[in-house]
Amino acid sequence: MIALLSPAKTLDFERPLPPLQVSKPYFSAEAHSLARSAANLTQKRLSELMHISPRLAKLNADRFRDFDNLPERPALFAFAGDVYTGFEVDTLDEVAVSFAQDHVRMLSGLYGLLRPLDAIRPYRLEMGTRWAPRRTSLTDWWGNRIAQLLLEQLAEEGSGVILNLASQEYFAAVKGRLAGVRVIEVEFREPGPNGPRFVSFNAKRARGMMARWLCEHRITDVEAMRGFDYDGYRFDGQESDGDRWRFTRV
């Protein structure tokens, strides 16, 4: 199986890296093309498009302007948001990281589809952004390209199964374009006064923890993922249905 994750807005290009054999993003040329186009946007326009502060707009305008000269870092070690806090890649052994390279993918507004060790440059460009060169949105700009690459990688991997741990915003880039693929939708719930409830922060961390669990245990049979039990989560058979799986913290 291949597990899909969303990227993170928060990046870390400072902490020490273990020795790694990095890879090149498949859509590297497209990423550079998008960055060049985004470099033409004003700071004010970036602030409006991304709903960010003037300070962050300047940071990202500078990133797009200088994109070709920015440092590179493996994607799984560069993203530092809630999902990646749950993944805790810094404490994974080399074999688990290698397994991740084969079985984990990250959807990206700028890079399309990333393997964990693909070298990326600092950026912020959400898939839901209502901008793209000669298109009205990034999902329109990418079209079928991300889904086609994912289908090719699934065929090489051999399972024909996706464990979807990405947000709706990012999965929209491939939704409806994966004919013949089994997609397992995963949701996480917390105890609440009126029954199990969705808590965004906890759900993001849990997505990362589940991806880590897959890599730590070298899981290749998706049905075995029902055994995920980090941080008190358990598979809830009564609230799950077919390919929609719920995990509730007990």
How does this structure look, described?
The chain has 250 residues and is of the alpha/beta class. It is built from 10 helices and 9 strands. The protein has helices at 28-38, 43-50, 54-65, 75-78, 82-87, 94-103, 138-142, 145-157, 168-171, 200-216; strands spanning 2-5, 73-74, 104-108, 112-114, 119-120, 161-164, 182-189, 233-235, 244-249. The strands form 2 sheets. A 7-stranded mixed beta sheet has the order 4-3-1-6-7-9-8. A two-stranded antiparallel sheet has the order 2-5.
Write the SSE topology.
Elements: E1 2-5, H1 28-38, H2 43-50, H3 54-65, E2 73-74, H4 75-78, H5 82-87, H6 94-103, E3 104-108, E4 112-114, E5 119-120, H7 138-142, H8 145-157, E6 161-164, H9 168-171, E7 182-189, H10 200-216, E8 233-235, E9 244-249
Parallel strand pairs: 1-3, 1-6, 6-7, 7-9
Antiparallel strand pairs: 2-5, 3-4, 8-9
Outline type: globular
The percent range for strand residues is: 5-15%
The radius of gyration over CA amounts to 18 Å
Arrangement of strands in the largest sheet:
4-3-1-6-7-9-8
Q: State the helicity in percent bands.
A: 25-40%
Following the backbone from N to C, one meets helices and strands in this order, namely EHHHEHHHEEEHHEHEHEE
Question: pLDDT under 50 segments (min length 5)?
Answer: none
Could you tell me the number of beta strands? 9
The overall average pLDDT, rounded, is 96
Supply the helix-strand structural class. Answer: alpha/beta
